[in-house]
Amino acid sequence: MPKEVISSSVIKRLPRYYRFLGELIKQGVTRISSRELSEKMCSTASQIRQDLNCFGGFGQQGYGYNVLELHEEIGKILGVDRNYKAILIGAGNLGKAIALHIDFSKRGCSLIGIFDSNSSIWGQDVAGIKISPASELDSFCLSEKPEIAVLCIPKQNAQQIANRLVNLGIKAFWNFSHYDLRIDYKEIVVENVHLGDSFLTLTYGLTTLINKAQ
Amino acid sequence: MPKEVISSSVIKRLPRYYRFLGELIKQGVTRISSRELSEKMCSTASQIRQDLNCFGGFGQQGYGYNVLELHEEIGKILGVDRNYKAILIGAGNLGKAIALHIDFSKRGCSLIGIFDSNSSIWGQDVAGIKISPASELDSFCLSEKPEIAVLCIPKQNAQQIANRLVNLGIKAFWNFSHYDLRIDYKEIVVENVHLGDSFLTLTYGLTTLINKAQ
DNA sequence: TAGATTGTTAATCGATTAACAATC
DNA sequence: TAGATTGTTAATCGATTAACAATC
């Protein structure tokens, strides 16, 4: 009985299920019960069954889950069988690293363009793509119609560029700028990544640890 | 009435408060009420007051919060007034980008060493630090005593290197390898960053959007 | 069939929101 | 003092866990 709206708690766990199931496939595991999977993932069997049943009954009573089948089903839910087109804006250190480090093709997406306003790096090759002037964004988007934009730009420019990209048809933003992107247009998806915040979560833990030890 | 243990929901919001308060300081704002702050952050006044009161009463009835003071208090809680020492393991694209992109000094930390097993990049300068052979890790840690390790290494090596680092006195891991680090030793803090998972959360949203539109 | 394990409902737990007395 | 806004308790909401009938 698939639900209408899925809570973000569940959604954030899906990629992790997908990752672990991928590992199990590599290891040659063909079936797994929710209990076994929960032990590997430091989760609970109940939670896994609840999560999966948001999308449908992928298991079989008395047997468990077929690993290959479940992996594929979750992949479909996440959209890795799509062929989205992504562009990357801002080819500084982080932008280049993302372009080279993330295997977009494994995740239902092709990176088809990289843009920067800094003329000194135009033409440079990153992940097989030449860095283009930001001024070419409009014509590129109008002809290639990418759905996803990866933003690796300074926070001052983020909101302005994002608004421009929405008008060019971008539907999803993976935002690495140190700015909480807010899109007032509906029907736009935003994933803000704050690496600095993540680091501070770590130092909080460390600080707490040290305070406790004293 | 500060609490003993703070829920991770609260902790994960602290860096965001810290960031927004930093922005307010830049803008010259000296005081703010929980209601005003909640509007800027797309949060609720109740949640902000609850969160802050986990750590103490930083506000004043009838007045609100002193922005500078609150920023500093949250900074202390997060540990930005400390002087932690961090090392980075794995100076590939992502490792280099993290070294260059994250302002560790703003976050109570100095990056003091970069290590890689690839001899062809030894001696290269990244963020003012020369890349050292991974074989020098032991002697370096024993003399410099860093507390934090940033792992930008392939997943196959992650667990092994992490265990080694724990024995060398590392207390906190910022882990970018595509692997869920599990430390069996107690009193070790781990922050796993899964950029691939974050991207899949985005494609989930996009896929749902497109399915709905049809 | 008997055993195992799911799908699903019910119970519990925790987090968020609302309300208000305390107080600046 | 009166108005504003906190700190904190109570109410609500949602997420997780437990339990178990359904069923492979």
Question: How many H/I helices of chain A?
Answer: 8
Described by strand count, sense and barrel closure, the largest sheet of chain A is: 7 strands, mixed
Helices and strands of chain A: which structural class?
Answer: alpha/beta
The greatest interface here is:
A-B, 59 and 59 residues
What is the CATH-assigned architecture of the largest domain in chain A?
3-Layer(aba) Sandwich
Strand order, biggest sheet of chain A?
6-7-5-4-8-9-10
The average pLDDT score of chain A comes to 96
Tell me the helix content of chain A.
40-55%
Summarize the structure.
Chain A has 214 residues and is an alpha/beta fold.
List descriptors.
homodimer, alpha/beta, Arc Repressor Mutant, subunit A, Rossmann fold, 7-stranded mixed β-sheet, 8 helices, DNA-binding
Describe this structure in words.
The structure is a homodimer of 214-residue chains. Chain A is an alpha/beta fold and 214 residues long. Chain A has two domains: 8-76, Winged helix-like DNA-binding domain superfamily/Winged helix DNA-binding domain (Arc Repressor Mutant, subunit A, Orthogonal Bundle); 84-196, NAD(P)-binding Rossmann-like Domain (Rossmann fold, 3-Layer(aba) Sandwich). The first copy, chain A, has eight helices and ten strands. Chain A has helices at 8-26, 34-41, 45-52, 67-78, 93-101, 137-144, 155-167, 195-213, and strands at 31-32, 59-60, 64-66, 84-89, 109-116, 125-126, 129-133, 148-151, 172-175, 189-192. In chain A, the strands form two sheets. In chain A, strands 6-7-5-4-8-9-10 form a seven-stranded mixed β-sheet. A three-stranded antiparallel β-sheet of chain A has the order 1-3-2. In chain A, a hairpin with a 2-residue loop joins strand 6 and strand 7 (129-133). In chain A, helix 2 (34-41) packs across helix 3 (45-52). Chain A is globular and about 60 Å long. Chain A starts with 7 loop residues before the first helix and ends with a helix. The relative contact order of chain A is 0.09. Chain A binds a DNA duplex (24 and 24 nucleotides) through helix 3 and strand 2.
